[in-house]
Amino acid sequence: MAVRKIVKIDEEKCNGCGICVPACAEGAIQIIDGKARLLAENLCDGLGACLGPCPMNAITIEEREAEEFDEAAVEKHKKSIGREPHKHEHHETPKPVAPPAGGCPGSRLMSFRNEEEKAGTYQGELPSALRQWPVQLNLLPVTAPFFEGADLLLAADCVPLVYADFHRKFLKGKTVAMGCPKLDNVEHYLEKLTAIIKHNNLKSITVTHMEVPCCYGMVRLVQEAVKRSDKKIPVQRVKIGVRGEILETELMV
């Protein structure tokens, strides 16, 4: 034991968004029972890389008696959770390949762009602006053809239900990826987004998120993914209120 700097998590402030999880290179923080928690003192280096991403300012650095930081324990822990070194640690991210054919039919890649542009037909009373399938970020292959040269829309799951004009206002002409930063695997999201940005020539990224604090995690994910990809891409953030109104629009890059 020694007196040293170590992270402190205020559970009252923490909303369980999970943005701090991928920000911690040692994997020392995990979401347990809906709150961010430090798994072990010897896994935390006390440098505070997790402070910046926290939208609730729930993480601080304190100086107290704690177990000494143990790099060997960190490496063992990272292997146990399948954690790969981050790109900024000078490890190149391998280019993922598309999944083989024969998987779940609901995950089969489909592009509707040519059909809609040529025929101009649609099902239902209002036209759908959707140009591809699937739409969930977890199901999208990094090398899907509709990512190349696309304007990417990253939408929080709740936004299309709340904002009535979602298709015309945001989805039209874009490739979409959807997810929830509170309920889904945030670390996997970050790795997937980083790879998508790195291996495709995206023209722009638009992030639509709800006004609730945990939903801002979508914005943090894009910021970190763009940073890790070493690319410069225009990023626009749009915050939607729970009553369906646009509260804020910000060009971030």
TrEMBL record:
<feature type="domain" description="4Fe-4S ferredoxin-type">
    <location>
        <begin position="5"/>
        <end position="34"/>
    </location>
</feature>
<feature type="compositionally biased region" description="Basic and acidic residues">
    <location>
        <begin position="81"/>
        <end position="94"/>
    </location>
</feature>
<protein>
    <submittedName>
        <fullName>Ferredoxin</fullName>
    </submittedName>
</protein>
<dbReference type="InterPro" id="IPR052911">
    <property type="entry name" value="Corrinoid_activation_enz"/>
</dbReference>
<dbReference type="InterPro" id="IPR017896">
    <property type="entry name" value="4Fe4S_Fe-S-bd"/>
</dbReference>
<dbReference type="Pfam" id="PF12837">
    <property type="entry name" value="Fer4_6"/>
</dbReference>
<feature type="domain" description="4Fe-4S ferredoxin-type">
    <location>
        <begin position="35"/>
        <end position="64"/>
    </location>
</feature>
<feature type="region of interest" description="Disordered">
    <location>
        <begin position="79"/>
        <end position="100"/>
    </location>
</feature>
